[in-house]
Model the fold of this input.
Amino acid sequence: QVQLVESGGGLVQAGGSLRLTCAASGRTLNTYAMGWFRRAPGKERDFVAALAQDGVSTYYVNSVKGRFTISKDNAKGTVYLQMNNLKPEDTAHYYCAATHSYDSRTYVDSSWYIFWGQGTQVTVSS
Done:
């Protein structure tokens, strides 16, 4: 069992930055690929970014490429999402999740993730 707790959300102006943190407890993150998803008001939960078990291979939805960076610190048991040049359309509730899958094709699919945090709200004003 892995418990995930997100933090770092808030209100920021367009063009600003935030760093989301996902703190994991219960088990090591070494055997999990980690993902970030977001749900905007009235919309489905969408994939944002993923980091494979090797800690190097990263995957992003096109709309955040070049602006967001996912990383992790195994020693601390934390996963980060650095978000730069934020846009109003990035406004959403952001969730951290963990999957056992080693197939990168599954990382965009939320059904493959077995552990989820409660999320943190990000609001970007124009």
